[in-house]
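Could you join me in thinking about how sequence relates to backbone shape in a protein? Would you write everything just below, so we can both look at the same thing?
***
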Amino acid sequence: MISYFNDYANLCFEKFGDRVKYWITFNNPWTHAKVWHSYNKTWRSKQQGMVGISLTGAWGEPVELTSQKDIEAAERYVQFYLGWFANPIYSGDYPEVMKNYVGRKSAQQGLGTSRLPTFSVQEKSYIKGTSDFLGLSHFTTRYITQKNYSALKGPSYHTDRDLTELVDPKWPDPGSKWLYSVPWGFRRLLNFIKTQYGNPLIYVTENGVSEKLQCTQLCDEWRIEYLKGYINEMLKDPLTTHMEMVTEIVVPTVFTLCILISAILLMFLLRKHN
Protein backbone atom coordinates (compact mmCIF):
# COMPACT_ATOMS: atom_id res chain seq x y z
CA MET A 1 0.00 0.00 0.00
CA ILE A 2 2.75 2.46 0.97
CA SER A 3 4.79 1.79 -2.16
CA TYR A 4 1.74 2.04 -4.43
CA PHE A 5 0.69 5.35 -2.93
CA ASN A 6 4.24 6.68 -3.14
CA ASP A 7 4.39 5.73 -6.83
CA TYR A 8 1.08 7.50 -7.42
CA ALA A 9 2.28 10.60 -5.57
CA ASN A 10 5.50 10.76 -7.57
CA LEU A 11 3.52 10.53 -10.79
CA CYS A 12 1.43 13.48 -9.62
CA PHE A 13 4.56 15.43 -8.70
CA GLU A 14 6.04 14.73 -12.10
CA LYS A 15 2.96 15.69 -14.11
CA PHE A 16 1.55 18.57 -12.07
CA GLY A 17 4.31 19.78 -9.75
CA ASP A 18 5.27 22.71 -11.97
CA ARG A 19 1.80 24.19 -11.27
CA VAL A 20 0.62 22.60 -8.02
CA LYS A 21 2.54 23.87 -5.01
CA TYR A 22 0.48 22.52 -2.11
CA TRP A 23 0.03 18.77 -1.68
CA ILE A 24 -2.05 16.82 0.85
CA THR A 25 -1.17 13.16 1.27
CA PHE A 26 -2.82 10.29 3.15
CA ASN A 27 -3.87 10.24 6.81
CA ASN A 28 -1.48 7.46 7.77
CA PRO A 29 1.79 8.63 9.38
CA TRP A 30 4.04 6.09 7.67
CA THR A 31 2.50 6.49 4.19
CA HIS A 32 2.56 10.26 4.53
CA ALA A 33 6.19 10.26 5.65
CA LYS A 34 7.23 8.13 2.67
CA VAL A 35 5.69 10.61 0.23
CA TRP A 36 7.12 13.63 2.07
CA HIS A 37 10.63 12.17 1.87
CA SER A 38 10.17 11.40 -1.82
CA TYR A 39 9.17 14.99 -2.52
CA ASN A 40 11.93 16.35 -0.31
CA LYS A 41 14.59 14.26 -2.05
CA THR A 42 13.50 14.48 -5.69
CA TRP A 43 11.13 17.37 -6.31
CA ARG A 44 11.36 20.14 -3.70
CA SER A 45 14.45 21.88 -5.07
CA LYS A 46 12.92 22.06 -8.57
CA GLN A 47 9.29 22.77 -7.74
CA GLN A 48 9.50 24.69 -4.42
CA GLY A 49 6.23 23.21 -3.19
CA MET A 50 4.92 22.06 0.19
CA VAL A 51 3.67 18.67 1.37
CA GLY A 52 1.31 18.40 4.33
CA ILE A 53 -1.33 16.14 5.79
CA SER A 54 -5.01 16.84 6.48
CA LEU A 55 -6.46 15.54 9.75
CA THR A 56 -9.86 15.81 11.40
CA GLY A 57 -10.02 17.09 14.95
CA ALA A 58 -12.83 18.01 17.35
CA TRP A 59 -12.33 19.88 20.59
CA GLY A 60 -13.08 18.27 23.94
CA GLU A 61 -14.02 20.53 26.85
CA PRO A 62 -14.09 19.18 30.44
CA VAL A 63 -17.59 19.03 31.92
CA GLU A 64 -16.21 20.17 35.27
CA LEU A 65 -13.26 22.54 35.00
CA THR A 66 -12.40 21.84 38.65
CA SER A 67 -12.32 18.07 38.12
CA GLN A 68 -8.86 16.69 37.35
CA LYS A 69 -10.44 13.51 35.99
CA ASP A 70 -12.58 15.46 33.54
CA ILE A 71 -9.60 17.59 32.50
CA GLU A 72 -7.55 14.47 31.81
CA ALA A 73 -10.48 12.83 29.99
CA ALA A 74 -10.84 15.88 27.72
CA GLU A 75 -7.12 15.74 26.98
CA ARG A 76 -7.46 12.04 26.07
CA TYR A 77 -10.37 12.84 23.78
CA VAL A 78 -8.25 15.23 21.71
CA GLN A 79 -5.18 12.98 21.79
CA PHE A 80 -7.12 9.92 20.66
CA TYR A 81 -8.82 12.01 17.95
CA LEU A 82 -6.16 14.31 16.50
CA GLY A 83 -3.01 13.18 18.30
CA TRP A 84 -3.32 9.61 17.00
CA PHE A 85 -2.10 10.82 13.59
CA ALA A 86 -0.55 14.23 14.34
CA ASN A 87 1.69 13.21 17.21
CA PRO A 88 3.86 10.78 15.21
CA ILE A 89 4.49 13.48 12.61
CA TYR A 90 5.31 16.28 15.06
CA SER A 91 6.75 14.29 17.97
CA GLY A 92 7.80 10.97 16.44
CA ASP A 93 5.43 8.66 18.32
CA TYR A 94 1.85 8.06 19.37
CA PRO A 95 0.62 10.12 22.36
CA GLU A 96 1.82 8.69 25.66
CA VAL A 97 -1.71 8.63 27.07
CA MET A 98 -2.87 6.62 24.07
CA LYS A 99 -0.04 4.10 24.45
CA ASN A 100 -0.79 3.73 28.16
CA TYR A 101 -4.54 3.28 27.84
CA VAL A 102 -4.53 0.97 24.81
CA GLY A 103 -1.64 -1.01 26.29
CA ARG A 104 -3.42 -1.51 29.61
CA LYS A 105 -6.72 -2.48 27.99
CA SER A 106 -4.88 -4.91 25.68
CA ALA A 107 -3.20 -6.58 28.66
CA GLN A 108 -6.55 -6.86 30.48
CA GLN A 109 -7.96 -8.56 27.39
CA GLY A 110 -5.21 -11.18 27.57
CA LEU A 111 -3.19 -9.94 24.62
CA GLY A 112 0.57 -10.35 24.70
CA THR A 113 1.21 -6.99 23.05
CA SER A 114 -0.67 -3.73 22.70
CA ARG A 115 -3.20 -3.35 19.90
CA LEU A 116 -1.51 -0.02 19.17
CA PRO A 117 1.53 -0.62 16.94
CA THR A 118 5.00 0.30 18.14
CA PHE A 119 7.38 2.46 16.13
CA SER A 120 11.04 1.48 16.00
CA VAL A 121 13.70 4.11 16.69
CA GLN A 122 14.38 4.34 12.96
CA GLU A 123 10.68 4.73 12.15
CA LYS A 124 10.27 7.51 14.72
CA SER A 125 13.18 9.41 13.20
CA TYR A 126 11.85 8.83 9.69
CA ILE A 127 8.33 10.09 10.48
CA LYS A 128 9.09 13.01 12.80
CA GLY A 129 9.08 16.41 11.13
CA THR A 130 7.58 15.27 7.84
CA SER A 131 5.02 18.02 7.36
CA ASP A 132 5.35 21.47 5.81
CA PHE A 133 1.86 22.38 7.02
CA LEU A 134 -1.08 20.85 8.88
CA GLY A 135 -4.40 20.66 7.09
CA LEU A 136 -7.19 20.77 9.67
CA SER A 137 -10.77 19.62 9.24
CA HIS A 138 -12.92 20.80 12.14
CA PHE A 139 -16.66 20.97 12.67
CA THR A 140 -17.75 20.72 16.29
CA THR A 141 -17.01 20.27 20.00
CA ARG A 142 -18.03 17.93 22.81
CA TYR A 143 -18.15 18.17 26.59
CA ILE A 144 -16.11 15.32 28.06
CA THR A 145 -16.29 13.52 31.38
CA GLN A 146 -14.50 10.52 32.83
CA LYS A 147 -16.22 7.14 32.47
CA ASN A 148 -14.56 3.77 33.01
CA TYR A 149 -15.28 0.94 30.58
CA SER A 150 -14.49 -2.68 31.31
CA ALA A 151 -11.89 -4.27 29.05
CA LEU A 152 -14.19 -7.30 28.93
CA LYS A 153 -16.43 -5.38 26.53
CA GLY A 154 -13.86 -6.21 23.88
CA PRO A 155 -11.41 -4.12 21.87
CA SER A 156 -12.85 -0.78 20.87
CA TYR A 157 -11.50 2.69 20.13
CA HIS A 158 -14.38 4.17 22.12
CA THR A 159 -13.95 2.05 25.27
CA ASP A 160 -10.15 2.40 25.22
CA ARG A 161 -10.53 6.11 26.01
CA ASP A 162 -12.51 5.72 29.26
CA LEU A 163 -14.66 8.79 28.67
CA THR A 164 -18.09 9.82 27.50
CA GLU A 165 -19.14 12.64 25.17
CA LEU A 166 -21.93 15.11 25.96
CA VAL A 167 -23.48 18.11 24.24
CA ASP A 168 -25.05 21.27 25.62
CA PRO A 169 -28.75 21.37 24.67
CA LYS A 170 -28.33 25.14 24.23
CA TRP A 171 -25.85 24.66 21.38
CA PRO A 172 -27.39 25.48 17.98
CA ASP A 173 -28.47 22.28 16.26
CA PRO A 174 -28.29 22.25 12.46
CA GLY A 175 -30.14 18.95 12.13
CA SER A 176 -27.23 16.53 11.92
CA LYS A 177 -27.04 14.33 15.01
CA TRP A 178 -23.30 14.85 15.48
CA LEU A 179 -22.78 18.46 14.38
CA TYR A 180 -23.37 21.40 16.73
CA SER A 181 -22.20 24.97 16.27
CA VAL A 182 -19.56 25.68 18.94
CA PRO A 183 -17.17 28.32 17.53
CA TRP A 184 -15.17 28.78 20.74
CA GLY A 185 -14.12 25.12 20.56
CA PHE A 186 -12.38 25.84 17.26
CA ARG A 187 -10.31 28.55 18.93
CA ARG A 188 -9.26 26.25 21.74
CA LEU A 189 -8.31 23.50 19.32
CA LEU A 190 -6.12 25.92 17.34
CA ASN A 191 -4.35 26.96 20.53
CA PHE A 192 -3.89 23.31 21.52
CA ILE A 193 -2.22 22.64 18.15
CA LYS A 194 -0.02 25.72 18.55
CA THR A 195 1.18 24.58 21.97
CA GLN A 196 1.33 20.85 21.32
CA TYR A 197 2.98 20.83 17.90
CA GLY A 198 5.22 23.87 17.87
CA ASN A 199 2.94 26.42 16.18
CA PRO A 200 2.79 24.78 12.72
CA LEU A 201 1.43 26.46 9.61
CA ILE A 202 -2.27 25.51 9.45
CA TYR A 203 -4.65 25.42 6.52
CA VAL A 204 -8.31 24.77 7.31
CA THR A 205 -9.11 22.11 4.75
CA GLU A 206 -12.69 21.37 5.77
CA ASN A 207 -15.33 23.20 7.77
CA GLY A 208 -19.04 23.72 7.29
CA VAL A 209 -22.49 22.77 8.41
CA SER A 210 -25.64 21.08 7.18
CA GLU A 211 -28.97 22.85 6.84
CA LYS A 212 -32.01 21.35 8.54
CA LEU A 213 -34.56 23.54 6.76
CA GLN A 214 -35.81 22.44 3.37
CA CYS A 215 -36.32 25.59 1.32
CA THR A 216 -37.67 26.06 -2.17
CA GLN A 217 -35.63 29.27 -2.33
CA LEU A 218 -32.23 30.23 -0.96
CA CYS A 219 -32.21 30.33 2.85
CA ASP A 220 -28.64 30.14 4.04
CA GLU A 221 -28.73 32.35 7.14
CA TRP A 222 -27.87 29.49 9.46
CA ARG A 223 -24.82 28.48 7.42
CA ILE A 224 -23.71 32.12 7.24
CA GLU A 225 -23.90 32.43 11.03
CA TYR A 226 -21.99 29.18 11.52
CA LEU A 227 -19.17 30.18 9.19
CA LYS A 228 -19.04 33.71 10.58
CA GLY A 229 -18.68 32.39 14.12
CA TYR A 230 -15.89 29.96 13.26
CA ILE A 231 -14.00 32.44 11.06
CA ASN A 232 -14.17 35.11 13.77
CA GLU A 233 -12.73 32.69 16.33
CA MET A 234 -9.90 31.85 13.94
CA LEU A 235 -9.11 35.54 13.34
CA LYS A 236 -8.83 36.52 17.00
CA ASP A 237 -5.45 37.62 18.30
CA PRO A 238 -3.37 34.64 19.46
CA LEU A 239 -4.01 33.69 23.06
CA THR A 240 -0.87 34.03 25.13
CA THR A 241 0.50 31.30 27.33
CA HIS A 242 0.89 31.84 31.05
CA MET A 243 4.59 32.65 30.72
CA GLU A 244 3.98 34.98 27.77
CA MET A 245 1.37 36.78 29.88
CA VAL A 246 3.84 37.16 32.75
CA THR A 247 6.54 38.46 30.41
CA GLU A 248 4.44 40.71 28.19
CA ILE A 249 1.81 42.03 30.62
CA VAL A 250 2.68 41.53 34.29
CA VAL A 251 6.36 42.52 34.19
CA PRO A 252 5.84 45.79 32.24
CA THR A 253 2.90 46.66 34.49
CA VAL A 254 4.88 46.12 37.67
CA PHE A 255 7.78 48.10 36.23
CA THR A 256 5.46 50.99 35.35
CA LEU A 257 3.92 50.95 38.84
CA CYS A 258 7.38 51.03 40.41
CA ILE A 259 8.28 54.12 38.38
CA LEU A 260 4.99 55.78 39.31
CA ILE A 261 5.43 55.05 43.02
CA SER A 262 9.02 56.30 42.88
CA ALA A 263 7.88 59.54 41.23
CA ILE A 264 5.21 60.10 43.91
CA LEU A 265 7.72 59.47 46.71
CA LEU A 266 10.18 61.85 45.08
CA MET A 267 7.53 64.59 44.81
CA PHE A 268 6.60 64.04 48.46
CA LEU A 269 10.23 64.30 49.58
CA LEU A 270 10.82 67.44 47.50
CA ARG A 271 7.73 69.14 48.97
CA LYS A 272 8.77 68.17 52.48
CA HIS A 273 12.25 69.51 51.84
CA ASN A 274 10.87 72.83 50.58
In short: Residues 240-257 have pLDDT under 50 and may be disordered. The chain is about 50% helix and 10% strand. The longest helix spans residues 242-273.
